[in-house]
Amino acid sequence: MALARAFAPGKVILLGEHSVVYGHPALAGPLEQGVTVTLDSSDSGLLIKCPVDAPQLTSAVKRCASLFRLTDVSVELGGDLPQAVGLGSSAAVSVALVRAFAAATQLNMRPQGLLDRAMELESEFHGAASGVDHNVSFERKLIRFVKGRRGQPLVLPKAVEAVVWVVEPRGSTREKVAALRRRREYEPEPVDRIFQRIGELADSAVEALERGEVARAGHAMDENQRLLDALHLSTPGLDAEIRELKSLGALGAKLTGAGGGGSVVGLFEDADPVVARLVAEGKRAFVARWEATE
Ligand code: PMV
Q: Which of 140, 184, 218, 230 is the most exposed place for a label (fewest CB within 10 A)?
C-alpha cells in the first residue's frame, strides 16, 4: 500500500489572466483533470518517477521533500492533465505534492499553511505567480480570486458549463508575464487601463453567474478576449478556435492562461454536444462543469 496519495486538479481561467498579477480580480475554476502524486517508502533516498523529464518538476519534488524533511521516499507523478497549455499543471503538481507529503508525515496543517507551501514550490516554475492557479487547485471550486487573499467560492444558482479546447503548444508563463511587465514599463497608462477594465469584467462576470445570467458572463469573456488580443497575447490559431466556439453557440469565448498559444475556453448552456462534436473531429476538448451551490 502506498504511503500516501493525493490528487490536485488543473484550472481554467474564465476571466482575468495577467491583470490578476497586478491585483485585479480574476474568475477561475477547477477541471476534472489533474495531477496525482503517490508516495512510497524507499531504501535508497529520494526517488522521482515522472512521465516527462522536466528539471523544474524534479526541483519541485526535491524542495517539497526538504520542506517536509522526508527524504527516504519514492515520489511518482501522474494524472491526465495536459501540460504547458494554460491549464495550471505546475500549480496542480505543487498542490498535489504538498497534500501527499502532509498526509505521509501526518502533519495536521491548516489550509493556509498547505497553500503557502504549495506557493513556495511554485517558485520553481513561475517566478512571480499571482496564486490564482494554486487557489483554484486547492479550493476545487469556481472562485473569485484577488492576489494575496484566499479565493472566494461563487454562490451559483445554476450549474455553469464550459468547453476547454487544447489548441497548440506555447512558451512559458514566466516569459509572457515578463514581456507584459516590460511593455507596462514602456507604456504604463494604456496597459493599466486595460488591466483595470479586465478586472471590472471579471467582477461583472462573477455577479452575472451568481444571478444565473450566464449569457452576460459570456459577453464579459468576449470583451476580455478583445483586450487580451490588444495586449498581443492571442495568436491566429487561438483566434480561429475562438471563432469556431462562437459559431458552435458559445455565449462567450477567449484564450485561457498566459496566452501566446495554449487553450481556449467557451461558456455554453450545454457543453456536452459541443465537446462530442469536437472530439469526433479529432480535437482535444473536454467539458468543465461547476454545479449549482444553492
Ligand atoms: O498558469 P498559466 O500559464 O495558465 O497562467 C497563469 C495566469 C497568469 O495570470 C498569466 C499568471 C499568474 O500568475 O496569474
A: 230
Average pLDDT taken over every residue of the chain: 95
How does DSSP assign 223-260, residue by residue?
A: HHHHHHHHTT---HHHHHHHHHHHHTT-SEEEEESS-S
Distance 3 CA to ligand 1 centre (A): 32
Ligand 1 binding residues, C-beta < 6 A: 17-18, 20-21, 86, 88, 129-130, 132-133, 173, 177, 257-258
The per-residue pLDDT for 84 is 86
pTM of the predicted protein model: 0.96
Q: What share of the chain is helix, strand, coil (3-state, %, to 5)?
A: 45, 25, 30
180-218 burial code (b ≥16 CB/10 A, e <16): beeebeeeeeebeebbebbbbbbbbbbebbbeebbebbb
Smallest CA separation from ligand 1 atom 1, residue: 88
Distances (CA, A) of 179 to 13, 20, 130: 20, 15, 16
Closest ligand 1 atom to 90 CA: 1
**Pocket probe mutation, ligand 1, options 87, 122, 145, 173, max atoms within 8 Å of Cβ:** 173
User: Ligand 1 centre and the CA of 223: distance in Å?
Assistant: 19
Q: What is the pLDDT of residues 85-122, one digit of tens each?
A: 999 999 999 999 999 999 999 888 899 999 999 999 98
Atom number, ligand 1, closest to the C-alpha of residue 18: 9
List, for residues 109-160, the tens digit of each pLDDT value: 899 999 999 999 987 777 678 999 999 999 999 999 999 999 999 999 999 9
What DSSP state is assigned to residue 270?
Answer: -
Q: Which residues pair with 285 in a beta bridge?
A: 165
pLDDT of 127: 67
